[in-house]
Amino acid sequence: MTVLEQTARRQPIPSAALLLDAPALREEVATVLTDFLAQRARTAPGPETTLLFTTLSALLAGGKRLRAHLCLAGWKAGGGCGDRALVLRVAASLELFHASALIHDDVMDGSDLRRGRPTAHRALEAAFLADGLQPRRAKAHGQAAALLLGDLALTQSDDLLRTGPGTEALARIQPLLETMRHQLAYGQYLDLVAAGRPCDDVEAALRIVRYKTASYTMEWPLRIGAALAGAGPEVHSVCSEFAIPLGEAFQLRDDLLGVFGDPSRTGKPVGDDIRAGKATVLMALALQSATAPDRQLLRNAVAAPDLTDDGIRRVREAIERSGARRQVETMIAARRHEALTALDGAPLPLPAAEALRRTADMATVRQS
After folding, report:
1. SS (H, E, C) the chain
2. Mean pLDDT by 10 residues, the chain (368 residues)
3. Which pLDDT value is given to residue 93?
């Protein structure tokens, strides 16, 4: 154990800082990211790269900091204590990794908005046009530059990680980080190959959820934090039993918000998943239960990029008539209950268990 790790373990951590919306946590993570990216920007080769860092910083300015919160909660669940300096850098590195995934995901989906702002590839495309360069090259330039930015965010995530915990702690979390990254790549590919193929296979849609969202959003950040604290197998088991069903509930809520949400709160247009042809559980259930005319309407709407707002309205109505929206709400409630049950009698410090219960509430009732 390094001297820095020993010092961190001697200082108590306030349980309030583990709450998802705690200003202290958000500000601390933001400070770590801002300082780190500013240092990297200063050493970048030339003023041309400034746009990359400003675009990445704009993306990182938003978001729920969910992975950072879970990393801290997992650390506390594993018995960690200290001033958060080490674990915060790991938590911030997970936010950078998340940014990398979002940038690539938005390019793949052709999305225009993320967190109420232009997506990275759209922002880079606009900057290209603002420089007075050839309009016919703007779209391709924006996409290519965004792919490079996503790669840069991934490598910066690794760099930030290496400035945090000592060698022993890094060795404990490295296998978890690798598994998280592998599973996200598999999930993205499963999502890609399923897109545009209207399907009523709920289990196939759930498999995408488990790989693309449940593990990467909930399970691995929580277990990485626990591993930083040196937690044993029993704590890791509880983390998985809590996080996997909650991660599924989180994505199921996201699917509902993508169709029935308020764009002013979600930061994304309603209906993008339908236009992109995403294989969601919501759509699979609707296709199972819809009347023949509604089933045909849904099949025609999936992966129709020019679907109008009126078309989205008719899709929403068909989904409502099928009962799929109510079924998804039931699935969310069941998974929330499963996650909370995993905490009953679990060998976790009370502040960590309280933070996780609050996370369950946020993940299942959120509107953004």
Report:
1. CCHHHHHHHCCCCCHHHHCCCCHHHHHHHHHHHHHHHHHHHHCCCCHHHHHHHHHHHHHHCCCCCHHHHHHHHHHHHCCCCCCCHHHHHHHHHHHHHHHHHHHHHHHHHCCCEECCEECHHHHHHHHHHHCCCCHHHHHHHHHHHHHHHHHHHHHHHHHHHHCCCCHHHHHHHHHHHHHHHHHHHHHHHHHHHHCCCCCCCHHHHHHHHHHHHHHHHHHHHHHHHHHHCCCCHHHHHHHHHHHHHHHHHHHHHHHHHHHHCCHHHHCCCCCHHHHHCCCCHHHHHHHHHCCHHHHHHHHHHCCCCCCCHHHHHHHHHHHHHHCHHHHHHHHHHHHHHHHHHHHCCCCCCHHHHHHHHHHHHHHHHCCC
2. 31 41 81 96 94 96 91 94 84 97 94 92 96 94 98 97 88 96 95 91 95 93 96 97 97 94 86 91 97 96 91 96 98 97 95 92 84
3. 97
Nearest to 89 by CA among 74, 68, 110, 106: 68
What integer pLDDT is reported at residue 9 of this predicted model?
35
- Token digits for 316? 């929403």
Residue type, 276: A
- State the Cα–Cα distance between residues 91 and 168, nearest whole angstrom: 17
User: What would you measure as the largest C-alpha separation in the chain, in angstroms?
Assistant: 68
Q: C-alpha 255: how far from its chain's center?
A: 13
**Residue 129 CB-density burial (10 A; 0-12 exposed, 13-18 middle, 19+ buried):** middle
pLDDT at 250: 95
What pLDDT shows up at residue 6?
34
Residue whose structure tokens are 């039993």: 241
pLDDT of residue 13: 38
Q: For residues 154 and 149, give the distance between their C-alpha atoms in angstroms, rounded to a whole number.
A: 9
Which long-range contacts (C-beta less than 8 Å, at least 24 apart) are formed by 141-145?
143/107, 145/52, 145/121
Distance CA 113, CA 153 (A): 19
pLDDT at 22: 64
* pTM (whole model) above 0.85: yes
